[in-house]
Design a protein that fits this description.
Blueprint: H1 10-18, H2 24-29, H3 32-39, H4 43-58, H5 65-70, E1 81-82, H6 87-92, E2 97-98, E3 102-107, H7 113-123, E4 136-141, H8 148-156, H9 158-161, H10 167-172, E5 179-183, H11 187-204, E6 207-213, H12 215-222, H13 228-249, E7 253-257, E8 259-261, H14 266-272, E9 280-282, H15 285-289, E10 294-303, E11 322-330, E12 338-344, E13 347-351
Parallel strand pairs: 3-7, 3-10, 4-5, 4-6, 6-7
Antiparallel strand pairs: 1-2, 8-9, 10-11, 11-12, 12-13
Helix pairs in contact: 11-13
């Protein structure tokens, strides 16, 4: 607290500092006589102190629940989102991915989780006018090699996906230079990356997005069923570290999660079920779920067209016109709902309805 900013006699400010009172909140905890004893000031000086502190606090804007519900108040960080680069998906998520908190993308293999994360790695680099944060991304791989070939495809087709952005703006962005790739083969390496290297990039303003692909791979491989308590402790530690980075730097955290068969586990199915009837549940259980702000479940359904379109890409990437769904399982600002989308050569595109 900078006491010199308050309209007070320097003598009063000196007395407050000597009493080791560090905040305005701490001043208001004491009664008048208590402040006199702490600061050794006269009653008139204490009254001036309380008046100055109260006046400063009144300048802080208070947001009511009614204003939040009707979105009539212009928020700072809480109202800002990172665009997914698709107007339909952005509308579905009320602007995109929240800047503060951990967002999970869960789903089976080939559901499109990595595709969406790669698209966000490019979207974050756009200026704020176009839904970005004008910074790069950190992509932490824990199981597979980073899909650089697909990333280069997306970069080369940004002008087709982002038709809302002038071509000269797209050409000025050096997308490939602003994505920092890390490979973490074990939990210790992951913790070291998050604790030491990532904060340096955040402090420099080089990145404003952190992606972990995937969070379940390491915890499934390193802990047996009997070590559930130890695993839970490590998950809580990881979640706390990611939360601190997100809150401290207003940086979205995206964690890809695997799924497990939910047959016979009704509690897991009920706690993670949405509008769509699924027979799978996100991995890592309730301990990890408690670390999340938002959980999205991705899944494949069927072909969007009668004849799937094949793109001139690596066949192993399976870029066909398969209709997929993204479903909100839980989020503080969104109802349970789902949206269709397809993975095109140029990137992920939402669809307003199933056709």
């Amino acid at each position: 607290m900078d006491w010199d900013q308050l309209d007070l006699n320097p003598r009063v400010i000196t007395a407050v500092k000597k009493a080791k009172i560090k905040s305005m909140r701490e001043v208001l905890k004491y009664s008048g006589p208590d402040l006199q004893r702490q600061t050794k000031l006269s009653i008139l000086d204490v009254q001036q102190l309380l008046k100055a502190v109260s006046g400063a606090l009144r300048k802080i804007t208070v947001v009511t629940a009614f204003q939040m519900y009707h979105e009539k108040h212009i928020f700072t960080v809480q109202h800002q989102k990172l665009s997914l680069g698709c107007p339909i998906l952005d509308s579905f998520l009320r602007g995109g991915v929240p800047l503060v908190g951990i967002t999970e993308l869960a789903g089976e293999s080939s559901a499109g989780k990595t595709q969406m994360c790669l698209q966000l790695c490019l979207s974050v680099q756009y200026p704020g006018t176009y839904g970005g944060l004008d910074a790069g991304a950190v992509y932490i791989c824990t199981e597979d090699v980073f899909p650089n070939k697909r990333l280069q495809q997306l970069i080369g087709h940004q002008h087709k996906l982002r038709t809302d952005v002038p071509l000269d703006v797209i050409k000025k962005i050096k997308f490939g230079d602003n994505i920092f790739i890390e490979h973490a083969a074990d939990i210790d390496t992951l913790n070291d990356c998050i604790t030491r290297r990532v904060p340096i990039l955040l402090l420099r303003g080089s990145v404003r997005l952190i992606i972990v692909d995937s969070v379940a791979a390491l915890f499934r491989g390193e802990f047996a069923a009997k070590d559930s308590a130890v695993r839970a402790k490590h998950l809580q530690t990881l979640g706390a570290k990611l939360q601190n980075l997100s809150c401290g730097f207003q940086t979205p955290i995206l964690c890809i999660n695997q799924v497990t068969d939910a047959v016979g586990d009704m509690d897991a199915r009920q706690s993670n079920s949405g509008l769509l009837d699924k027979k799978v549940s996100p991995a890592l259980g309730i301990t990890w779920s408690n670390q999340l702000l938002m959980r999205l479940m991705l899944s494949r359904t069927q072909y969007a067209d009668a004849e799937p379109k094949e793109f001139p890409v690596d066949a192993s990437l399976q870029y066909t016109n398969v209709l997929r769904t993204v479903e909100v399982i839980f989020a503080p600002h969104l109802p349970q709902s789902f949206c269709y989308y397809v993975v095109k050569l140029e990137g992920v595109r939402g669809r307003k309805e199933k056709e």
